[in-house]
Amino acid sequence: MNRIWFSLMSGLLILAATAGPANSDQSSVDVASGIQLLPGQLQADRSPDGNSLILRGEEGLVVIDTGRGNEHTRQLIDLVSESGLPLVGVINTHWHLDHIGGNARFKQRWPGLHIYAHPSLDTALGGFHADYRKQLDAYLPTLAEGSPEQQRYQAEMDLLKQDRKLAETDPLRKSTTLTLGGRILEVHVSEHSVTEGDLWIFDPQTRTLIAGDLVTLPVPMFDSACPEGWKRTLDKIAATRFRQLVPGHGAPMGPENFSTYREAFNRLLECSASNTDKQTCINQWFAQMKPMIAQADEAYGRTLLGYYIDQFIRPDAPGRKRWCSQKD
Ligand SMILES: [Zn+2]
């Protein structure tokens, strides 16, 4: 069992076991005028979904991130369908499955739909996703047939097999302004941050910034990340005059909380690059981020951060070689 496995599976399993509401639909909330958030979920018996947003313009709707292809995606499709407005496009912030997993269902429901994303899913299909498939191939036969765990990971395998059906139709390699449904959106492309290509979106009308997994709680998730690239992207976000930031996982935050997050992120990188003991760096993160982290999430957050420091953040970490000069 290699390290990606640990992080993707065990990490999320710990996370799922300690957080999240009972098994029911999430309630969508209005976070700004014409911007509806369908919060992601973390539950013991389900794989997680990232936050999704529905932006309403005069001529139609835009969806940002489609969940994992499961109940979250179903709920999102229902919300769009019930609105009576046409869906004019989907934007994916990055290629993690909890953000693009619903793309195939969206394409099926709205044939010809435009899906805007950085084209780096292609690299991931031959690398990160291929690794995950191999791990599931080995893991699935060890699970009891029909058990909830077997069903859950079989669903993951089925999702991975959708391959290019999860891909964008309109690749974005450079930052641009999109007018969709009558709404003007600034789409920023940042490379080698959380993934090879991340999109973050600024809506100038409401000054809402949609950050994808560039901001996540309780800790930043480094599984496919380049720490320095990510740091530079957080600097760019800080220079944007947003009123509210919607993270990839967790509740929307104002500029002050984002500033705390960025400071804690920078300190984590500095601490990990020094000779300071790993535990001290972890303590530092949780001391600084305390107001934003639920107590129940701290234990698994500490485990994850320890793993990320060794595998992705330290100057000689193997993940750094892979994700900062990415070829696979
Ligand atoms: Zn995510």
Small molecules held by this entry: zinc ion
Q: What gap, in angstroms, lies between the N and C termini?
A: 20 Å
Highest-level CATH class of the domain at 3-218 and 242-253 = Alpha Beta
Low-confidence stretches: 1-23
Q: Helix and strand string, N-terminal first?
A: HEEEEHEHHEHHHEEEEEHEHHHH
The count of helical stretches stands at 12
Quote the average pLDDT: 90
What fraction of residues sit in β-strands? 15-25%
**What would you report as the Rg, rounded to the nearest angstrom?**
19 Å
| Counted beta strands | 12
Strand order of the largest sheet: 1-2-3-4-5-6-7
Give a short overview.
With 328 residues, the chain is α/β, with parallel strands linked by helices.
How would you explain this protein's 3D organization?
- This protein is of the alpha/beta class and 328 residues long.
- The protein has a domain at 3-218 and 242-253: 4-Layer Sandwich (Metallo-beta-lactamase, Chain A), CATH 3.60.15.10.
- The chain is built from 12 helices and 12 strands.
- The protein has helices at 3-18, 71-83, 97-100, 103-109, 121-126, 128-139, 148-160, 227-238, 255-273, 278-289, 298-313, 318-324, and strands at 29-32, 35-38, 52-56, 61-64, 87-91, 115-117, 170-171, 176-180, 183-191, 197-203, 208-216, 244-249.
- The strands form 2 sheets. The chain has a 7-stranded mixed beta sheet, covered by helices on one side. It has a 5-stranded mixed beta sheet with strand order 8-9-10-11-12, covered by helices on one side.
- Strand 9 and strand 10 form a beta hairpin.
- The radius of gyration is 19 Å and the shape is globular.
- It starts with a helix and ends with a helix.
- Zinc ion binds next to helix 3 and strand 12.
